[in-house]
Amino acid sequence: MIYLGIKHNIKNFVYEEDDLKKLSTRELIGFICHIRNWHFRNFNADYRYDGDYESRWEEYIKDYVVVKETWPDNYHPTEYYWTDEKVLRDILKTRPNIPNKIQRKNALKKIIAQNKKKVKRNIKYNKYD
């Protein structure tokens, strides 16, 4: 991880590809969700790096997006973590699939349907004379 410096009293760090490969699949998916939420929360503002750091970092993180932030209180963030979204998505493509809610429901329904065929149900009715 590279420390970029402080901008507006916020520390900035960059995840490199090696750092991302060490993280779990759930954490990487959380980064993708954070990108989506960050974009929505800022009312479709440009959430990419804006080039105010030293010139040596400008080319390096031109296409980077915020994937994580630290808020010790509810007023101001203290740290931003950046990464290249293309690299992040490429790493996720090589990872095994983690089913979402709909996929888990469908898999459960399929298992239940298969088990219903195997079980013979004897339904007894009370007969009243």
| Main β-sheet, spatial strand arrangement | 1-2-4-3
- The backbone outline, from C-alpha atoms, is elongated
**How large a portion of the residues is in β-strands, by DSSP E?**
15-25%
Low-confidence blocks of residues: 43-47
Mean of the pLDDT scores? 76
Largest sheet: 4 strands, mixed
**Helix- and strand-based class?**
alpha+beta
Can you tell me about this structure?
The chain is of the alpha+beta class. Helices cover 43% and strands 19% of the residues. A four-stranded mixed sheet has the order 1-2-4-3. A hairpin with a 2-residue loop joins strand 1 (2-7) and strand 2.
Short description:
The protein is built from five helices and four strands, in the order ββαααββαα.
Please outline the helices and strands.
Elements: E1 2-7, E2 10-14, H1 17-22, H2 25-41, H3 55-58, E3 64-70, E4 79-84, H4 85-94, H5 101-118
Parallel strand pairs: 2-4
Antiparallel strand pairs: 1-2, 3-4
Helix pairs in contact: 2-4
